[in-house]
Amino acid sequence: MNARPGRLWVVATPIGNLGDFSPRAKEVLARVALIAAEDTRHSAPLLAQLGPHAPLLALHEHNEREQAQRIVARLLAGEEVALISDAGTPLISDPGFRLVRAAREAACEVSPVPGPCAAIAALSVAGLPSDRFVFEGFLPAKAAARRERLRVLADETRTLIFYESSHRIVETLSDMVAVFGAQREAVLARELTKRFETVLGAPLETLHARVLADADQQRGEFVLVVNGADGEDEAATLAAGRRIFALLREELPPSRAARLAAAISGAPRKQLYAEESQPAE
User: Fold this and answer.
1) Partner of 14 for a Cys bridge, out of 20, 73, 220, 274, CB 3.0 to 4.6 A?
2) What are phi and psi for residue 185, nearest 5 degrees?
3) Sequence-ordered list of residues with C-beta below 8 angstroms from that of 56, at least 6 positions apart, any chain
4) What's the Cα-to-Cα distance from 132 to each of 71, 157, 192, 229, rounded to whole Å?
């Protein structure tokens, strides 16, 4: 075993436009001994433009624990390894956390090769406050869990960033209208850096109607950037009431929990109580 461990490179790759593949990223990927990729079938065509490259190893959410140990063993033997995801910066709603942690715990050096990231790209063109923001990634797939998560975030004053798939974009926008309020400002960034890129900014109600009416706007990959709540507006008051009601509901009957939550937060009691009776999906 070499006295000096090798290095793990965390390499960002294009999210669409291949022109965003940095020269440094290409150079690193061309020289390492192994490339760990989320989906080798997806990454192989991307890497083909580099010419000959290192062997690919699949590293995804189902095998990361086991593969991380194998990769760390190669790092400890002095080899250099690169980690890439299907697109963009690894670990951002993608696998890689366990590998990076294992490498650092083994005293291997870990270095980033920065580049594209869909969340930051969307924020940079959204025209919404960017000094403080929260990245939420993908919301739960099931409607009831998704709405509950949105309720937790409803009075967050920082700008919110979400990823969403084409299968759920209409439903997610509908839930955001219901929870955040129809007039909350948001930006929907679709297919960033690709041929059919669109960046739409409008109140959530308008965005939902636009996407619902246009099948083309339901295709591709999405980033939703949502304005943070005004701490004094009605939406924030309602969100606070919902959180308090949820806590009280664990110990009290719905009517009493709604009455106390309304008294504490100033949110409308009838709305809090009515939401309790809505069927879960």
Assistant:
1) 20
2) -70, 140
3) 35, 36, 37, 40, 43, 44, 47
4) 36, 9, 22, 13
Residues 242, 272 contacting (CB under 8 angstroms): yes
Note whether 158 and 134 are within 8 A (CB): yes
- At 222, the amino acid letter reads F
Q: How far apart are CA 83 and CA 166, in angstroms?
A: 27
207/175 Cα distance (integer angstroms): 12
Contact assessment for residue 245 and residue 272, using Cβ atoms and an 8 Å cutoff:
yes
Q: What is the pLDDT of residues 11-62, one digit of tens each?
A: 999 999 999 999 999 999 999 999 999 999 999 998 988 887 889 999 999 9
Residue 21, classed as helix, strand or coil, is: coil
Where would I find the H helices in the chain?
23-31, 40-48, 64-76, 97-105, 118-126, 143-153, 169-180, 204-213, 234-249, 254-265, 269-276
Give the predicted TM-score (pTM) of the model.
0.79
